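Suppose a colleague, Dr. K., hands you the sequence of a protein chain of 152 amino acids and asks what its three-dimensional shape might be. Before reaching for any lab equipment, you can write down a predicted structure in token form. Begin with the sequence itself:
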Amino acid sequence: MSSLNGLRATEGLMAFRADIAIPNQPAYQRWHNNEHIPERLSIPGFVRGRRYRSVVDDTRFLMYYDTASLRVLTSAAYLAKLNAPTPRTRTALRWFENPMRTAYTLVDALGTPERQAAPVLAVASFAPPAAPRADALAGLAAIAGMQRVLEY
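The predicted structure, expressed as tokens, is then:
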């Protein structure tokens, strides 16, 4: 696990975006708070789980889970939970519209790790060309204020 400014940092991140219809949101939030996050955090290597709602679309949510590494997402413990969802999870999965799950590995960081959940999270999605140009990667790095953003 890498160390940032002397503090240990997670190296894996699983992000899950989905739209949840407004009538389903109270039940979804109860399930996510009371069952799903605690269940995921019981899996070795899961460090924290968070949820954000879009400020421009009341139905869009981003859930993310910091993990010790991406290997956690192929572990027997995680796959067992993933392949045997609880009854409440099976119900909750029906509420997810336009789902998109992505896994990331930390390759660089700036500053110190956060000590508490950020009240606001900015998310930008990029679809680089098959062979990204150096100037495009430099532009992404400038946006993030970092030396290195992506590794190909």
